[in-house]
Amino acid sequence: MSELSNLKPTIRLSITNPTSDSGSVFGRGIANLCLGVRETGSLNAAAKGMGMAYSKAWRIVKDTEAALGIQLLDRDGAHGSSLTDDGNKLLDAYVAIDAKLQENAEKEFARILG
């Protein structure tokens, strides 16, 4: 059997604001942070779960919010954070599209390899 059968394509989806001059995008990293906030109710806990400093997570969220022109998180100080309605919709769309693209890429890869 060919060594190619051990390989798997990986899709990297990013969502951008075409009117923004910023290089920040909504991609896998911020999506994982948002999933962590959704699960834990805390940006700090989400960051720690990813092995990331809170200050870095905070900067990523702020930069992404500025680039996209939407607020992703509602922050309640010591009481944690939650996703805004827009944040939830964007995250749900990202997760669904990412899964579908990955599935299609794997099927096409297998088809091409025969």
From TrEMBL:
Origin superkingdom: Bacteria
Record-annotated membrane-spanning stretches: none
Domain called HTH lysR-type: residue spans: 37-87
Pfam family, one: HTH_1
Signal peptide positions on this chain: none
SUPFAM superfamilies for this protein: Winged helix' DNA-binding domain (SSF46785)
Protein name, as recorded: LysR family transcriptional regulator
Species of provenance: Gordonibacter faecis
